[in-house]
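Student: I would love a firmer grasp of how sequence relates to backbone shape in proteins. I am handing you a single protein, as its sequence and its fold in token form. I am told such tokens are a discrete way to write the fold. I hope you can help me see how the letters and the tokens relate. Take your time, and here it is.
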Amino acid sequence: MKIKAMKLESAIRILAGTLILTGLALGTWVNPHWVWLSAFVGANLLQSSFTGFCPAAILLGKLGVGSKANGKCCEP
């Protein structure tokens, strides 16, 4: 059985979802200021949908996830 490499888009969604839920959990149980982490991730997702520039794609590309490391998110 051959294991497929994770696509960059999937890794970005996993990272964003994890950071949003982590920020909400920390904001609920530790300090309310942690919700700013969720706001930052949401704003970054919004701007990347308009500009195509995604810092998470650069970071994950340098870590070897996916084949694109040019910071362009979800492009063919």
Summary: DSSP finds three helices and no strands in the chain. The chain has a mean pLDDT of 86. The radius of gyration is 14 Å. The first helix runs from residue 8 to 29.
